[in-house]
Specification:
Strand order of the largest sheet: 1-5-6-4-3-2
Helix content: 25-40%
Largest sheet: 6 strands, mixed
Strand content: 5-15%
Radius of gyration: 18 Å
Order of helices and strands: EEEHHHEHEEEEHHHHH
Shape: globular
Number of helices: 9
Length: 275
C-alpha cells in the first residue's frame, strides 16, 4: 500500500507543533537496527529521526489506547464515528483486535490473516543512500518512495514499513485538546476534510501498521475494491471492506482523540438506498 500526497493532503493546518525537520545531528548514525517502544524496531535511522520516531510511536500508542477504551466501553454506540467507519457489531471485535495488536506492539498479525507475522513492524528511515534491504531482495526502498509522492509504505508481506523523506514534513500529532473535525451536511462529510483530521505522523504510522497486522485481507491498490482514502469513500464501503481498509482505522482513531462526534449514518442515503 502507498499513502500518496494528493491534493487533499494539502489542507493540513499548522497547530503550533514543531515540524520534524532535520536537526544538526540528523545524519549521525545509530546501530543499523535497534528496538524502541517494546517490540517495534528501527532500521537505518539517524539519532535525530530515531528520537522523532520514539515520540511518534508514543503518540500513536496514546491515540490507540483512547480508541481501545472507547470501543470497549461504548461498542457500536461510540460517539466517534465507529458505526460510520465499520458498520457492524461483528466488525467491532475484529477492529478491537487490530487496535490492541498495534497498541501493544504484538508479534503476530490479525487472527484472520493467513500469514502470521513473527515479529512486530520494523520501520526503515529511507534516504537516497538506502537502495536495498537484505531481507527484501529486488526492492529499492528509495525508488519505491518516489512512486506517486509516497509518504510511507508497507511492503507486503514483510514486516517492513518504509518511512519516506516526505514523512518527516508532517506534524507528529495534533496538539492536546485541539479539534480538527470534519463537518456533516445531508448525511455526508462536507467537501474533503480528510487531511485536516488525519494527516499526522502518529496516524500515518497507524495506517501502515493496519496493513501489516491485517496482511493479505487489507485493501490496497491491487484489490477489488481498491483501497480508499477519502472520508465519504470510507463510509461508502461495505461492512466487510470497511474492516479491511486502513484509512477507516486511521479516521476512527483520529476522531476519538480529537473528540469528533459528527459522522454520517451509513444506513441512510446516499450510502444506502434504504430510507
Amino acid at each position: 500500500m502507498v499513502i500518496a500526497s494528493t491534493f487533499w493532503f494539502l489542507m493540513i493546518h499548522a497547530l503550533h507543533i514543531v515540524f520534524a525537520t532535520p536537526a544538526p545531528d540528523a545524519t549521525r548514525a545509530v546501530p543499523p537496527v535497534h528496538f524502541i517502544n517494546g517490540g517495534f524496531s528501527l532500521e537505518s535511522c539517524s539519532v535525530y529521526y530515531s528520537t522523532v520516531m520514539h515520540n511518534v510511536l508514543k503518540a500513536s500508542r496514546l491515540a490507540l489506547s483512547l480508541a481501545i477504551k472507547d470501543l470497549s466501553q461504548h461498542r457500536l454506540n461510540s460517539s466517534y464515528g465507529f458505526e460510520a467507519m465499520f458498520k457492524t457489531e461483528e466488525n467491532m471485535y475484529k477492529v478491537y483486535s487490530v487496535l490492541l495488536n498495534m497498541e501493544t506492539g504484538h508479534s503476530s498479525a490479525h487472527h484472520t490473516s493467513p500469514t502470521r507475522s513473527k515479529a512486530a513492524p520494523r520501520f526503515v528511515c529511507v534516504t537516497p543512500e538506502i537502495t536495498s534491504i537484505p531481507e527484501l531482495p529486488g526492492l529499492n526502498p528509495y525508488e519505491h518512495c518516489q512512486i506517486g509522492d509516497t509518504i510511507a509504505a508497507y511492503v507486503r508481506p514483510s514486516r517492513y514499513i518504509l518511512l519516506c523523506e516526505r514523512f518527516w514534513s508532517y506534524l507528529a500529532a495534533p496538539e492536546p485538546g485541539s479539534r480538527n473535525c470534519p463537518s456533516v451536511a445531508n448525511n455526508e462529510f462536507v467537501d474533503d476534510q480528510s487531511s485536516r483530521v488525519s494527516m499526522y505522523q502518529s496516524y500515518l504510522v497507524i495506517h501502515e501498521m493496519v496493513h501489516y497486522y491485517l496482511q493479505e485481507p487489507s485493501l490496497n491498490q491491487e484489490t477489488n475494491p481498491p483501497e480508499v482514502y477519502d472520508l465519504n469513500e470510507c463510509v461508502a464501503l461495505s461492512a466487510t471492506d470497511s474492516e479491511r481498509n486502513p484509512s477507516n482505522y486511521q479516521f476512527y482513531v483520529a476522531f476519538v482523540q480529537q473528540n469528533c462526534t459528527q459522522a454520517p449514518n451509513p444506513s441512510l442515503p446516499p450510502f444506502s438506498q434504504s430510507s
